[in-house]
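Lab notebook page, bench 4
Experiment: in silico fold of construct C2
Operator: M.H.
Input chain length: 147 residues
Purpose: comparison with the prior construct
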Amino acid sequence: MGSDVRLGETALRIYLLLLREGRAMSAREVQRILGLSSSGLAYHHLEHLRILGLVIKDTDGYRAIKKSGVIEGAIIVRSSVLPRASFYMGSATALTITYTILAILGMVKFDAVAVIAIALLQAFATVEFREQYVKLRRLLKAIEAQE
């Protein structure tokens, strides 16, 4: 999955369910657990995920392939799902800490423009992280609530 894959909310919910379960599931089982309107709808999304290479179909049903990559605002690392903005948040935090330490030690000259730029970067990364985190938590809680 070298590039960003765009999934709708239903397809993402199905993929996250399959990742979490770690086993093959039928379209009817996915439909029942997620409360979808029909097994045909579940089948449609499962086939879309299969075409994208995110799931495989075997005799037991559909099974998520545990790939690492970026999917619709999420980074998948094995079976862990993190908001994509966690990378930006971590980078901005590391930059903030590094600049602060270097300024305190006198290794770099304090620059108000740099401080403003770093603060803006940190603020934007925080807002983006929060939005993606809330969306992923909502999707995962919806999956858990429907089981």
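Observations: The radius of gyration is 20 Å. The chain has a mean pLDDT of 84.
Next step: discuss at group meeting.
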